[in-house]
C-alpha cells in the first residue's frame, strides 16, 4: 500500500498516533510518504499515486482543499483527531497557539469539515466518535491510545 501522511510531528500524539504506526507499516513493506520525502510536495499539489492519505489533527483551509482534491482523485482519506475543538476553553494559551474566539470557532468548523470530507475518521473514544458521527462523518472508528 502507498500511504501519504501529514501530522503534527512535534507533538507526542503525532508520534504515537501516526509516526510509530506508519514506521511499522513501512517496516512491513508499505510505502510511506511524508512531508520530509522529496516527492511529497509534488504529490500533494498534483495527483499522487497513493492509495491512502492520513491526516492527523490538522484542520486548515489548505488541508481541507487538498483532502477534497485527493478524495476526488480516488485517494482514500483518513482523518485522525483526538480533540473536541468546540470545547477548548478560551485561555491565554489557546489565544497564543490558535488565536482568539473567532479563529478557534473557525478551527472547530474546519475540523468538522475535515471529518465530513474523510472516508474514515479515527479518534480515541466513543464520545468523540459520536461527535463526529453526529456532524456527518461518513465512517468513524475508535482507536484508543495504547502506548
Please provide a brief summary of the model.
It is built from six helices and six strands; from the N terminus they run βαβαβαβααβαβ. The chain is an alpha/beta fold and 147 residues long.
Explain this structure.
This protein is α/β, with parallel strands linked by helices. The chain has one domain (2-142): 3-Layer(aba) Sandwich (Rossmann fold). It is built from six helices and six strands; from the N terminus they run βαβαβαβααβαβ. α1 links the parallel β1 (2-6) and β2 (31-33). The longest helix has 17 residues, at 101-117. The protein starts with a strand and ends in a 5-residue tail after the last strand.
Keywords:
147 residues, Rossmann fold, 6 helices, alpha/beta, six-stranded parallel sheet, 17% strand
Residue runs with pLDDT of under 50 for 5 or more positions: none
Number of strands: 6
Please report the distance between the alpha carbons of the first and last residues: 24 Å
Number of domains: 1
Beta percentage is 15-25%
Amino acid at each position: 500500500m502507498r500511504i501519504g501522511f501529514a501530522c503534527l510531528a512535534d507533538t507526542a500524539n503525532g508520534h504515537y498516533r501516526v509516526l510509530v504506526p506508519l514506521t511499522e507499516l513501512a517496516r512491513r513493506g508499505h510505502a510511506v510518504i511524508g512531508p520530509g520525502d522529496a516527492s511529497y510536495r509534488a504529490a500533494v499539489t498534483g495527483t499522487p499515486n497513493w492509495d491512502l492519505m492520513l491526516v492527523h489533527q490538522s484542520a486548515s483551509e489548505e488541508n481541507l482543499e487538498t483532502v477534497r482534491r485527493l478524495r476526488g482523485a480516488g485517494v482514500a482519506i483518513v482523518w485522525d483527531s483526538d480533540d473536541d475543538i468546540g470545547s477548548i476553553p478560551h485561555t491565554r494559551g489557546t489565544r497564543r497557539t490558535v488565536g482568539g474566539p473567532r479563529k478557534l470557532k473557525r478551527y472547530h468548523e474546519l475540523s468538522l469539515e475535515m471529518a465530513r470530507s474523510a472516508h474514515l475518521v479515527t479518534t480515541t473514544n466513543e464520545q468523540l466518535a459520536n461527535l463526529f458521527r453526529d456532524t456527518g462523518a461518513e465512517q468513524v472508528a475508535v482507536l484508543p491510545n495504547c502506548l
